[in-house]
Amino acid sequence: MANPVISVEQPNRLRIRFNQGIDPETGKPIIRSQSWGGIKPQAVQQDVYDVAYELAQLSQHSVFEYLLEEDKSLTE
Predict the structure, then answer these.
(1) How far apart are CA 53 and CA 75, in angstroms?
(2) Whole-model pTM?
């Protein structure tokens, strides 16, 4: 019988994707992202969003989306 799988929380990553304009050749939006690691799994999502919002205010580009990438390792 297989051992049960254990999920262990790992530091998360905050990613902000910015709209940097329109590609003149394709007409599609140009999306670039910036990310920050080391977000504690226990961090309150509203707090992470508030920090992301403030960081985005430092950019000259509009925000396309905010992402919280949660990470877990799986072991037996």
Answers:
(1) 35
(2) 0.82
